[in-house]
Amino acid sequence: MQRHTSGLIRAVVPRLALMASALALAGCASFGSSHPPAPAVASTAAYNYVVGPGDVLNINVWRNPELSSTVPVRPDGKVSTPLVDELVAQGKTSSEIARDVEKALGKFVRDPVVTVIVTTFVGPYSEQIRVVGEATRPQFLPYKQKMTVMDVMIAAGGLTDFADGNKATIVRAAEGNKRYSVRLQDLIKRGDISANVEMLPGDILIIPQGWF
After folding, report:
1. What is the C-alpha separation between 204 and 202, in angstroms, rounded?
2. How does 182-210 read in b/e, with b if 16+ C-beta sit within 10 Å?
3. Whose CA is closest to 188, among 132, 133, 150, 141?
């Protein structure tokens, strides 16, 4: 019996050592391939909101109420107003659209004065924040200045029971799709505010599933 036990130990120990070695290598590879943490501050004061399909614009022509209107931006990025059949709005600020409307109306009205106010915000596709993976409600969100990953997760309803929140990744289009790691589990479940980071237009938040 003792010989059998000794033989069994001699057979098992090398296998355990091999498994330990493989796990150590895997751990090192995983650590080496991890992404840098996302910077806490990312937005700049120079940001200006640009209009996208689905936005709603209130176009007011001073002293010409019959030319004023509230119009949606069509899927092709254009709007139509009285006396202006088609005008490209996508990718422009509200003041740029106002100047374009003034130029178009100048053919019919003397010195028109136009103001444009965005009343419903969706934004261009290139600037929307997308949440994919193990969020309760994966979705896209219009970007807002100083928006943080906490704001995004509140809108997305938090993490699912299967999420591995601390292995979440931000893919940052503004930096050539550079990837950053974020600690959603620490932020949401443990209240670690140091894990909260700012988002940038076009960011994609990817939340993987955990392995149990």
Report:
1. 7
2. bbbbbbbeeeeeebbbbbbbbbbbbbbeb
3. 150
- Calpha distance 175→42 (Å, rounded): 11
Q: Find the mean pLDDT for residues 28-36.
A: 54
Residue owning tokens 């019996």: 1
Residue at token pair 């689905």: 54
- pLDDT tens profile 136-162: 999 999 999 999 999 999 999 999 999
The kind and range of the H/E element at 33 are: none
Structure token pair of residue 188 = 């949401």
Q: Are strands 114-120 and 139-141 parallel, antiparallel or unpaired?
A: unpaired
Q: What band does 63 get if pLDDT is binned at 50, 70 and 90?
A: very high
**Domains annotated on the chain, with CATH:** 56-120 (3.30.1950.10), 128-207 (3.10.560.10)
Q: Distance between CA atoms of 86 and 24, rounded to whole angstroms?
A: 63
User: How many angstroms separate the CA atoms of 48 and 167, rounded?
Assistant: 32
Whether 116 contacts 101, CB under 8 Å: yes
